[in-house]
Amino acid sequence: MNEFHSYRRAERAGIARWFFLATFLVLVVAFFRTQVVQHERFRVRAEKNRLRIVPLVAPRGIIYDRNGLIIAENVPGYAIKLLAPSQDSLHAVLARFREVVPLDTSEVAGIMTRYRQAPYQPVLVVGNGTFEMVSRLEEHRAVLPGLVIQSEPRRYYPDGPAVAHLVGYVGEVSERDLESERFPGAQLGTVVGRAGLEQEYDKELRGRPGVHYVEVNARGRLVREENVAPALAAIPGEAIKTTIDLPLQRYIDSLWQAAAPGVRGSMVALTPTGEVLALYSAPGYDPNEFVGGIYTEEWRRLNDDPARPLLDRAIPTRYTHASPLKLATAAMALKRGIATFTTRMPEPCRGGLQVGNRYFRCWKPEGHGNLNLEGAIAKSCDVYFYQLGLRIGLDAILSDGVLMGFRERSGIDLENEIAPIYPSNAAYFDRKYGPRGWSKWGATLNFSIGQGENTQNVINMTRFYAALASGGEAPTPYIVRPRSDQVRDLGLTPEQLAGLRTALIAVVERGTAAASRSIDLSIAGKTGTAQNSHGEDHGWYVGFAPAEKPQIIVGSIMEFAEHGSNVAPFVNKVLQRYVAGPGIPASPAVIALPADSA
Fold first, then answer.
1. 264-275 burial by CB neighbour count: b if 16+ within 10 A, else e?
2. Among 585, 521, 590, which Cα is nearest to 554's?
3. pTM of the full predicted structure?
4. DSSP for 189-246?
5. Cβ(76)–Cβ(154) under 8 Å?
6. Are 262 and 283 in contact (CB under 8 A)?
7. CA dist 471 to 30, 491, 523, Å?
8. Cα 193–198–201 angle (5° rounding)?
9. What is the pLDDT of residue 597?
10. Does residue 297 surpass a pLDDT of 80?
11. Which terminus in the chain has less CB density within 10 A, N or C?
12. d(Cα 443, Cα 389) in Å, to the nearest integer?
């Protein structure tokens, strides 16, 4: 019996030894796997718990003008961020933060939204911190746990409002942008272009962000910022060189602000080959205000301003063109052999023309008398062009206008260009008004003088005059590189183009722009008065110089200016400045515009 019990005890002892041995072997294998085989995996996981990634902003590429002058650059700046383990903790720190740096309710809401999007990264609080602000925060660092202050490149536009609509501005990418993949490669916190050149060439300008690490404790609170782990340096964006003549852009701004302060409008300057020398819109805004995030009060002011300073009046804004498009009517007649420069109409201008049961007026009540085509262009006689338009016919006016490019965008390498309104055929009027709701004669007469269902933007009209100023081909305007090599041929002979240029010289020498003629430079141009149902008429003027061999074409509109003759002195000053150089005085005599034009 004792032997049996001894045997059972020995058996149980053996089983226990094997059990403990197997357990030991399992633990050895587990420890070996953890410590050796999966060492790197768990080390990285531990590092992730200990470290927090702080993206490093890449310096955006510098934007240069044609001469190497800087349009947009980077300067040292500060980004102020907070690292918090929870929303409640962030709220508590923000309450103390606001005692040092004021933040309104909407800004706090935006900070909380950014935190929820990336809770394990420092959340941006102020993107455009100043040295004084950083100094105050450093004094209160003890009561601001998780405070991260980064020195990073800040976008800067030396000429501010003078280049605002040309260069645009930058801002942090939004969730909507990321969902739409509008900015490929962007992540939360990435700074992207929001308008102008910054947006059009964002991919080249943006660069690639780097990575910096900060150390946190088990509760997610900041422990150390420096020398935590090797950082990955940011890669700067590419520089771009534009066709812009920055001194000319500055001159236009100084001219506008000195002689027409508060007047709304725009001005565009091109070379005959389509290079954009200047693109200006007034009133403007300071793009530097958007860097690091625009303050709510400033954003509200810009949006509530009735002058709409954020609106680019050169690209995404359409206007009725009026008399500048009389040159298109003349070109159609010349191309079709309907008229020559010596052609006179059956009815001389006596201040208007009776067509059926309607009387269509000329802009000059006393009339212009009996004119030929050259004289009609110089005097901008409506009655002459009424009759010329009737000879061409509405269908031909519409089809030829489409061929000349009045129905399409200019193709400039900027976003948000708006398409013109220009019917392709008479069916447009049937669809809009019904077959009996419009008059073919009325539509023909309106189109013949540039009125009616026809609106263009400044860049497109300037492009058309670039064709008149050169070999008859309308180029694609561009600032960095053309989007296409497509041109619109007006279909005119060299002799016909020379005749139109002679007529445009007559406009400046003895016609509607004679008051702004220059004794030192031969200028060709055309004034225009665009009807405006909201107040005084808008003034148009497009000109080029030297008239015999053009180097520059400038188009401009001034809202509520009443007549193009009020715009011509501004454009002619710009033409003189470019051709003759900076010796031209910076400011002409102030031109009287309607009081409500501002």
1. bbbbbbbbbebb
2. 521
3. 0.84
4. T-EEE-SHHHHHTHHHHH-B-EEEEEEE-TTS-EEE-SSSS--BPPBPPPPEE-S--H
5. yes
6. yes
7. 83, 10, 17
8. 105
9. 34
10. yes
11. N
12. 10
